[in-house]
Amino acid sequence: MEKLRKLCTYVLQRRSHILNKNKLLIGYHTSSVRLWRDKVAIKIEEKLAVQHQGVFNEILAKKKADKTAFQTAIAYYIAKEKLYRRGHVEFIEAALHQMKEFGVERDLSAYKALLRVFPEGKMIPKSVWQVELFHYPKQQSCAIELMDQMEYHGVCPDREFGCILESIFGAEVHAFRKFRRMLYWLPKFKNASPYPIPYTLPIDPIELAMLALKRMVIDNQNKLTVWKTLEAEEEPLEDTFIVSAMSPEQKELIEEHPETKPLIVEGGYKTWLRNISQIYFVLRADPKPENFTKPPNDTRYEDEEDLFEFTTIFEEEKPKSVSNALSIHEQPDGTVLGMCITGTSSKNSIVTWIRYLQQTNPKLEKIPIVFQMRTPESGLQVIETDQEQNVGKFIS
Amino acid sequence: MFLRSRIIGQWQVCSKYNQLPQISHLRCFSSEASSVKTEESVTKTDKLQVKPVKGSKESELAKRYPSGITNEPFIKNLFLGKFDKEFLAYPEIEDVDEVNELNRMVQQVEKFFTEEVDSKSIDVNAKIPDDVLQKIKDMGLFGQQIPEEYGGLGLNATKFARIAEATALDGSISVTLAGHQSIGLKGLLIAGTEEQKEKYLPRLATGELVAAFCLTEPSSGSDAASIRTRATLSEDGQTYYLNGGKLWISNGGIADVFTVIAKTEITNQAGEKEDKITAFFVERAFGGVTNGKPEDKLGIRGSNTCEVHFDNTPVPVDNVIGEVGGGFKVAMNILNSGRFSMGSSSAGALKRLLGMTAEHATTRTQFGKKISEFGLIKEKFAKMALKIYAMESMAYLTAGVMDSYEKPDLSIEAAMVKIYSSEGTWMCVSECLQILGGQGYMKDYPYERYLRDARILLIFEGTNEILRLLVALSGCQHAGKELKNLVKKLRNPLMNPDVLVKTAFRKIRGKQLAGETTPLYLDGEVHPSLKEEADKIEDSVKMLQSSSDHLLVLHGNKIVDDQMNLKRLADIAIDIYAMTACIGRASRSRCIGLQNNDHEFLLTKTFCEEAHRNIKQLYHQIIDGKVKNLDQSYEHIADTIFKTGGYAAEHPLTRNW
């Protein structure tokens, strides 16, 4: 009983250790296989792993960490282990950890190069028993781990990848099944999003901001405008850029907005593009409750009196049948009139944005604007402006 | 004057006397006159009345229709399952001399168009030569519908349609004429005051003044109510100042007077100020009228189309057409009244094109045979003939009925003529080009010009889509008013179980939800050899009624949004109208023994079979619902396209990994 308890504790410790070490999604196969190995073997493995890690560190010290450096490391290993490929599992594992540093974690050819480190031919099972009993478990687990990492980064394997895998493990084993599942699902997931983002994001923050805004706007008439404060005015409050999204319909809504009711600038909200987050701000008006009191598909009214009393567009200038449809910007929680992303997300830049908007929307000069801003750093802040000029005092 | 002929009597009666059916002229104003019972008609046939019914009946009618005698709406009543049998009596011009006179006129016009008008150069130079235009004016063609007391030809609808057949030989001239008199000056004829008429009509009739109709704007196409051109009243209340731009105005560059539709601010009954549309008659001489350069167009290139701008143009209040704020109705009436002639003009041009194509088919040899011997070519010719026959029949039926009443209510019928003839023309011209092969495509031959000219027919004077909605919605509105109570009860079945059971029984027995279930006895109105066809009309009317009932119950007021089914309803109604016209015409031709009447007879039989088949299909589609008839799929597909901003499917060569 005592023995069993010890074993359990040990198993749990090892498991958490491995998980911490890898910081990756480790599949069932990998962990379960490892659990049944003895301490000595694990120690040797760790030693080897450290040794291989060293290879990468060495190269990192000499060269710039990029794809060629990564490939050099692999070539170096293969050249060294021409005959036996000793410790290839450990090498691959070490390499998987380093991929991010070399910036190749989303590069299929890097994974292929890494897969070629496995020796070819000798691990192909020769009977169904071998297939089902997880032939060469450590190696297969390693290959599955590699594919897991690909999956995590959204890298889809291709036919060549499958060929390499087949020449190493054969087409029946678990690793190859994993490959087939990936080939089935990943291409489908790749295009599942109705708001696609390019696979490699641009580096320029302006382009990123444009991409984020384009993804959020629902009106396809929308126009993006970019201002760089340095170019737009002589003495800017700060050096930054402003990307503003506003459609002609939103301009009309601003024109129709009564001067007595204030508009609200809200933000900053976070939006994500893959692993990059940006902060955006919204110019909105309070919702018009009268637009939303009667549900649009309420048939109770017509049942009573005016059933079939409709007039058509051919008889009347303002026929009863055609109601003024709400624009998509008029939502129950507010009418969205514009959005922006600025370089600094500061209060000044948002005020500048409103000032720029006034050039094309003269009505904005007459409407009071309330700034309800909550940047991640500053908590809730409200800036209220005077009617004449929009740069006003703060109320925190 | 113009009277409508009607075959009185039933075939049974005639065969009893073993003689051909007698023809008598009878003035028929209302459907009452048509719904004569069999016994009555027997007595009438016996007496063989020739004199028109006058006296008490007319005064009674005048009492009933104070603003002028009007017809029962034909198409609207079809939606209720009622059929006005008057429409099966094909109209003709009463006076033989009048017909001869008209034919002389047509011959003269036709001769002029064949010999003196060079359509090719008009097309290439995109201008009608001034001398040609002057000759057309001299012939009086600029004042065809203007009454004789104002110096016009005073043609009625039928004669106008007949002349249009000849003027349609050149598309550009035809459109120029239409822009001038079908829409440009029509406002004055419909709603103008006596002074306005006296002031302008004589000069318009001679072509001294050319008119144009200005409605379309950059922001306002089919939706006439959304125009932005504005007329503001001066402080002394004597002048309106007109500001705004109009787009794609036929004759815009050459016109001296314009019918302009603009928004004005008026005070309504409640005392509030609101924007209403008003029609103005504007002279170019008022000042502030400019126009852009003529548009370069696909077809009808010789006609002048351009932008017209009004910059503070002063218009005296005397030049308001109709009432201030009543311009929308004026505009709609102008457009509605101009459409019927498209049927005859299209038919005129098509008949000529068909002749040329037939000549080609009978002379061209391929594989050792004349191509006219090939089945596929024969099929094309037959189908074209069917279309032409139907559009011609519809056009002259509409025109004839129009002439029989003081205030005809035929806007829906006219819209149907326009829809059917424009689409038929496009199909026919396209098929002609197919038969002509390479020749049809070359600019050296006239055929491709016909194709280009024909394309506009589907677009202008109200696009066919909008007109289909007009047809279907008017019908549904009419039917809806009758069905209102029934539908209300049907929608609340727990409170009205008896109505539910009753309608369920009616449905099971294949009857309509409401209305008469007795047969229409249409075969009594036509030549007995067309009995089968008359039965097809009756069957079709039943289907139209059932399907519109079905949709009304299903949608209630939201029927206005189910455009795809409205289109089906409109198509059924159009086919019924075409069948009616064809049967009436063929019946008349056979009874009076016109040349080739057996050909007409065959055309009618074929057309009715085709139309009936088509109607059955449409009926089933409506009953099947939006999933089975694919409407839902169409909606989804289109939505995706709009969302992605174009064709959404990936390229077939795209790889995903």
TrEMBL record, chain A:
InterPro entries: ECIST_C, ECSIT, ECSIT_N. It comes from the Eukaryota. It is found in: Cytoplasm; Mitochondrion; Nucleus. Keywords: Cytoplasm, Immunity, Innate immunity, Mitochondrion, Nucleus, Transit peptide. GO terms for biological process: cell surface receptor protein serine/threonine kinase signaling pathway; innate immune response. One of its GO terms (cellular component) is nucleus. Residues 247-374 form the ECSIT C-terminal domain. Its main location: cytoplasm. SMART domains: ECSIT_Cterm. It holds the Pfam family ECSIT_C. Belongs to the ECSIT family. This is Evolutionarily conserved signaling intermediate in Toll pathway, mitochondrial.
TrEMBL record, chain B:
Pfam families: ACAD9-ACADV_C, Acyl-CoA_dh_1, Acyl-CoA_dh_M, Acyl-CoA_dh_N. The keyword RNA-binding does not apply. Residues 212-312 form the Acyl-CoA oxidase/dehydrogenase middle domain. GO terms for molecular function: acyl-CoA dehydrogenase activity; flavin adenine dinucleotide binding. InterPro entries: ACAD9/ACADV-like_C, Acyl-CoA_DH_CS, Acyl-CoA_Oxase/DH_mid-dom, Acyl-CoA_Oxase/DH_mid-dom_sf, AcylCo_DH-like_C, AcylCo_DH/oxidase_C, AcylCoA_DH/ox_N, AcylCoA_DH/ox_N_sf. It comes from the Eukaryota. Its cofactor is FAD. One of its GO terms (biological process) is fatty acid metabolic process. PROSITE patterns: ACYL_COA_DH_1, ACYL_COA_DH_2. Keywords: Acetylation, FAD, Flavoprotein, Membrane, Mitochondrion, Mitochondrion inner membrane, Oxidoreductase, Phosphoprotein, Transit peptide. Transmembrane segments: none annotated. It is found in: Mitochondrion inner membrane. Residues 325-472 form the Acyl-CoA dehydrogenase/oxidase C-terminal domain. It catalyses: oxidized [electron-transfer flavoprotein] + hexadecanoyl-CoA + H(+) = (2E)-hexadecenoyl-CoA + reduced [electron-transfer flavoprotein]; eicosanoyl-CoA + oxidized [electron-transfer flavoprotein] + H(+) = (2E)-eicosenoyl-CoA + reduced [electron-transfer flavoprotein]; tetradecanoyl-CoA + oxidized [electron-transfer flavoprotein] + H(+) = (2E)-tetradecenoyl-CoA + reduced [electron-transfer flavoprotein]; octadecanoyl-CoA + oxidized [electron-transfer flavoprotein] + H(+) = (2E)-octadecenoyl-CoA + reduced [electron-transfer flavoprotein]. Residues 102-208 form the Acyl-CoA dehydrogenase/oxidase N-terminal domain. It is a peripheral membrane protein. One of its GO terms (cellular component) is mitochondrial inner membrane. PANTHER family: ACYL-COA DEHYDROGENASE, COMPLEX I ASSEMBLY FACTOR ACAD9, MITOCHONDRIAL. This is Acyl-CoA dehydrogenase family member 9, mitochondrial. It comes from Patella caerulea (Rayed Mediterranean limpet).
